[in-house]
Amino acid sequence: MAPLDRKRAVLEKLRIERVPMPMPEPEEIRVRLDECGVCSSNLEPWAGPEWVRFPTEPGGSGHEGWGTVDAVGRDVDGISIGDWVAALFTHSYAEFDISQAAKVVRGGVG
Questions:
Q1: Of 33, 13, 48, residue with least CA distance to 84
Q2: CB contact at 8 A, 63 and 90
Q3: Given CB 3.0 to 4.6 Å as the disulfide criterion, which of 29, 93, 100, 102 pairs with 62?
């Protein structure tokens, strides 16, 4: 009987890159992210379906993040630099990300 084998992914050369800081559009904010959740939709790309490019783009995945606002677009009202927020993002695995101000919840713990 032939020995059993299995496949496994080998991700090589993980690196940290410096890239241009994203700037918010008029109705967006930029957040210095503290943390990000991992929801079930983040797990699917790791399973390797043909329609998903993996690994994702740098900082990609992660869409439920929270942190401190460090820039606001010119048309944003009610959110200020220094506010702690949670929001829907597209690159929450990065250090900073942009969100539409309408998708932000202000607040904090305690």
A1: 33
A2: yes
A3: 93
Q: Which amino acid is at 7?
A: K
Q: Is 103 helix (H, G, I), strand (E, B) or coil?
A: helix
User: What are the chain's domains?
Assistant: 28-106 (3.90.180.10)
Per DSSP, the three-state class of 99 is strand
Strand partners of residue 101: none
Q: Single out the residue of 31, 45, 11, 49 nearest to residue 89, CA to CA.
A: 31
How would DSSP label each residue in 31-97?
Answer: EEEEEE---HHHHHHHH--TTS-SSPSTT-B--EEEEEEEEE-TT--S--TT-EEEEE-SBTTSSEE
Digit-coded pLDDT (tens) for 71-82: 999 999 999 999
Extract the tokens encoding 4. Answer: 């059993």
100 C-beta neighbours (distance < 10 Å), count: 16
